């Protein structure tokens, strides 16, 4: 069993920054790819970023590329999302998720069903 708990959300001004964290319980955190997704009211859950088990490869949605950075600290069982140059359209509930399989093909990193454990989310609001 894995428990994921996000934190770090809040209110930010356009152009500002926030850093999200996702604390994971269990011994398997370091063995699996992890991802960040977001969901705005009335919209589907969208892929934001993903990272391989080692941190050696990262993947981003086009909408956040160059502004967001995903990272992980396997010694601390923690996943991060550094969000810079925030825009109002980044407003959403942000979720971290653990991949279902040890190997997650790069072409599948954005697929919701490839993840089997989810946190409850942390709200990010970007507004002046």
- What is the overall silhouette? globular
Largest sheet: 7 strands, mixed
What proportion strand?
over 45%
Q: What is the helix/strand order? A: EEEEEEEEEEE
Mean pLDDT: 95
Give a count of the beta strands, DSSP E runs of length 2 or more: 11
**Helix/sheet category:** mainly beta
Helicity range: under 10%
* Helical segment count: 0
Identify low-pLDDT runs: none
What is the distance, rounded to the nearest whole angstrom, between the alpha carbons of the first and last residues?
A: 40 Å
Radius of gyration computed on alpha carbons: 13 Å
Q: What key attributes describe this structure?
A:
mainly beta, seven-stranded mixed β-sheet, four-stranded antiparallel β-sheet
Structure description:
By secondary structure, the chain is mostly beta strands. The protein contains no helices and 11 strands. The strands form 2 sheets. Strands 2, 4, 5, 6, 9, 10 and 11 form a 7-stranded mixed sheet that branches. A hairpin with a 6-residue loop joins β4 and β5 (46-51). The protein is globular, with a radius of gyration of 13 Å. The termini are far apart. 34% of the residues are buried.
Topology:
Elements (H helix, E strand, L loop, with lengths): L3 E4 L2 E3 L5 E7 L9 E6 L6 E6 L6 E3 L7 E6 L4 E6 L8 E8 L15 E4 L3 E5 L2
């Amino acid at each position: 069993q894995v428990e994921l708990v996000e934190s770090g959300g809040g209110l930010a001004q356009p152009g500002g920054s926030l850093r999200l964290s996702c604390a994971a319980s269990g011994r398997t955190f370091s063995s699996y790819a992890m991802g960040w997704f977001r969901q705005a009211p009335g919209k589907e859950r969208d892929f934001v970023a993903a990272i391989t088990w080692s941190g050696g490869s990262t993947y981003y949605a086009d909408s956040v590329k160059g502004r967001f950075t995903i990272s992980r600290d396997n010694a601390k069982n923690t996943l991060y999302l550094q969000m810079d140059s925030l825009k109002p359209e980044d407003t959403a509930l942000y979720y971290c998720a653990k991949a279902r399989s040890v190997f997650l093909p790069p072409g599948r990193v954005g697929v919701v069903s490839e993840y089997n454990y989810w946190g409850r989310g942390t709200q990010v609001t970007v507004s002046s």
